[in-house]
Model the fold of this input.
Amino acid sequence: MNLLSRLRSLPLLLTTLAAVTSLPAQTPATTTTTGEPIRVGIRARNGGADRLTSLRYVGGFETKTMLLETLVRRGVDGRIVPGLAARWQILNDGRSFRFELRPEAKFHDGTKVTAEAVVTHMKRWVNLPEHNWLLGNQRITGVTVEDERTFRVDLDRPYALLEDLLAINPCAVVAPSSKDWEGEFMRPIGTGPFRFVGAFDEGKRWRVQKQDGDGPPIDVTFYPRGRETTPIDDLVAGRIDAFVGGWDEDLPAERLDALQQQSGFCVQTAPGSSVVYLSFRLTEGPTKDPTIRARIANAIARPGLIATIEGGRAEPCTTWAAPTVAFWPRGRQAVRDVPAGATGATDTTPLPTLKIAAGRAEGRAHRAASAVAEQLRAAGFAVEVLTAPAIAPESPKNVVDASGAVTPLTTESGEVRAAVGRRIRALSDGADVRVEITHGMPYCPHQSLVARFGTSTDGKLPRGGTAELQELVDLAAAEPSEQERLPIYARVQDLLDREHLIVPLYVPWRVALHRTEIVGISLSPDVYHADLTGLRRDGQ
Done:
């Protein structure tokens, strides 16, 4: 296209951009909507239509999983099942994977999902450094189209690629037509049950609609992660109709109890898959001694923690993976109503002082650390809880770099969030005991395990891990077949129990809040997904 043609195309391009970022949005002529939009709140960093892509780490997992699909996903029992790919083969001793796409799959713009389209999407993220948290990103050597529905991924070594392809960012497939003629991302076009309609209020809300047009549109409002209660306030005030919690939802139990007793509202819960657990400093200090770690484990009464921290909305857990991950091996630790020391234990060995890292002062980890500390004190330990300094709300500001580029920063900006994380990690490095939380399905059990205890890019032994555990986790990461990996998982869990390398505490329940006339919210153990395909007002 020559320069004159491009200039002539500019008004059309500007018109298209306006339609994407405002309402009413342009919608396909064949699409119908029924009823007023249902207003749903989720946890996410907001933004315009150009941010709602799996190639950017903003926009909310729950929203993206409404619009986009990964090639594979986890079933209700935690096993890997087909997604956009109907089937796959492991070839070349695990150095290659061949995928065959669902024959009926179409993007929201009506175009057929082809191997070429999927390969195009993969080539937009494979080997880019920002995705190196997925170790497979560094293992992939090529992605090749074989025919219209089949493509192959080649690796430099045998590797558990399917577990990486569960990752919503960056692996959920976005259609080639999501980009304009210059390659700029315009709007999310995927294969999920909902299609994107538009963004409005400066990107603070998005509207989606079921692809088949059956049911009301959904207006999505975004709330930052944390313990603030604005979603409950907005629900009671009538500003939203429902709120769906994410993987680390942490609304105050007393507010949920009050809402549950209030006429016209419902607190809906379901089993989750993120595990709150204790890890230890193994290189120095009192927790270097395995007998001390065993006494800490024996001092824990999980039901009491659940009552104190979560108001009863959680499930005890004694393994690396939640009970909803049905294939994970059961562990040796037991669920006690009272600590072992309160039931006649006779060990009178003097107990040391422990330092527990609590994370952010307002978060779940802090409350868990405080509750664990009380149980450990009752068992004879002296305990100091280390709390990260409170983070003051940051006013939006602009940072100008040497080239004159202006970057707006807020508390939701990646740079700010990374700096906060570094401060918390620096404090917790000096603690004997640390409260941590796994990511939950689809990243659990495998991705959380590899990220936490596997060999990192710097090759260092992870805090709270051992050389034996690291070797087992690396062995699991190198096994392409989930079925063949199960015995390795059993060895991992046995080692965790035998050496008391971690103390799993509990699994928080998933939570959704809504007005009683709103029905059809389905919560699975996948804490990054909410099935809203049946969402409607009762009687409609």
Summary: The first strand starts at residue 38 and ends at 43. The longest helix spans residues 3-20.
